[in-house]
Amino acid sequence: MSKLVYLVPLFPLIGFLINGLGRKSLSKSMISIIGCGVMLASFVVSLLVFFDVKANGATTVELFSFIKAADFQIPFAFQVDQLSSLFLLIITGIGFLIHLYSAAYMHEEEAQHFGRYFAYLNLFVFSMLLLVLGANYVIMFIGWEGVGLCSYLLIGYWFKNDQYNYAAKKAFVMNRIGDLGFLLAVFWLLFKLGTVTYGDVFSRVSELSSFDITAITILLFVGAMGKSAQIPLYTWLPDAMAGPTPVSALIHAATMVTAGIYMIARSNILYTLAPVSQTLVAIIGLATAIFAATIALKQNDIKKVLAYSTVSQLGYMFLGLGVGAYTGAVFHVMTHAFFKALLFLGAGSVIHAMHHEQDIRKMGGLKKHMPITHITFLLACLAIAGIPPFSGFFSKDEILMAAYSNNPIFYYVGLGGALMTAFYMFRLYSLTFLGSFRGTHEQEHHLHESPAAMTIPLIVLAVLSVVGGFVGIPEVFAADAHSLENFLSPIFAESSKLAHEHHLTHSQEYIMMGVSTILIIGIIVFAVTKFKKASNIQDENSGIGKVLENKWYVDELYDTVIVKPLHLLSVFFKNILEKNIIDGMVNGVGKIVGYGSRQLRLLQSGQVGNYILVMVMVMVIFILIWFNDLTIMKFLKKLF
Question: Facing residues of 77 across strands?
Fold first, then answer.
């Protein structure tokens, strides 16, 4: 079955072509069927590939020679193994639910734009599938750039709004900064090893010096910082909320932002051999987790809270990668895909009912009007907060335990972030669903539950958010019950041999889990009590609250330190360098040619006598030159 893995990206590509080319002639129903149908087909094939890999192990499927020059070649090949097959399920499974949800959420769009939307969605999924399936860094980079392009197209989907276009450009530019690091790492590998195929690179890693490995891994991490929104390249992700809400769910849960996690997990042996890079990854990840969590505490836009939550959770994943807990990081990618997609789609359901209102200060009391959205959203909040036995508890706890084994400070700081996560998520939940309604009478009159096409994905994701963590039950609860770790063990086998693991005792794990759970429950009770009856929260932001509401003024700092100086430099180039120097040189050449032409024009006087005189003179000069040493010259010399 693995030989047919090319069908997985092929189906979304076909959907993109049909909906893209036929968007002006196809009906919205047909566009929905095509867009969702190709995703369902892709998911079915992914499922078959997953079970094939589970039964028969990994394989590489080479389709054709992509780049070939003498002995050097880069094949267009797919790596079908435990890691890629797991990501295929996440991407196509969550992707299908988001496509299904979109069919109802975007139904008010014109047919032409509706088709354009689904074409972009299909292309986005195709690019992400290419990224995780590639058997070398070049194919990964093609998918890497593809998701960057699609995020630009989808964030700026409502292109008549200048603010949305600005957000799309911001995402595009910040990702290009990170992509430069990725590209340099690929060239470094080519220069040193002459290959970028995973199998060849990982088997010949001993040929690289420590400096090479450290430099390559840091450059790869720069790419990951851009794509997965880590400090300092994270500010594009919250602004990416300009796109439709299902797009936000797709970016945050199943595609784009998980690319950096996948890339480092795929390159795990390189990072295990580069302790400096690993430490850097852990510190940046932890700093991002805490920093983004503090910002989320004071955001009032329902999607912005979730966006900063994603940045924070990605930080935890990088913390896991940095301390060598590769399985834990991938595990958190999976559980995060469940509950974050659920949260975004739940937010979309709320926004749909509130007539595009996104400020949670103007909501409240939606629990009785939207029972399905309410209960599924609550389950997702419990999962992301890390309450046992919801999925987020198992994956986040695995990362924090590994962090403690590596450095206890990492654990305590990470635990602080987890407490903030519980607080801002239940602040969001309480202000949205509990208490009394704070919107307008017109909004309250039209409050209703979303249609089945939107609530069915919510229910499916809610089930996954609740039970999804049971694939990673830690050993402290049951021996050999961590199915995901067993499944992924071939991918991280070499790293496990080299890693110096420090295992905690079972009593330590029980104490740490118990303490963290009690603290998180306490925070949740505090947040619900504080906000469930809130009637006016307009005046709460002052001092540090004001700073957090304005996101530590990082955007303003970037604008002052980077954007404005670059803008001034570009104005200098435009008005001074280009106009006065480059234009002066170009115009000067034109003026010289013009002057010379005007002088030559004087020869064209129209006087026939002058023409004959000039002709005779030229002929005489020619004859004199041609017969320079002959009789005429001798005669003239004698004569004169």
Answer: 62
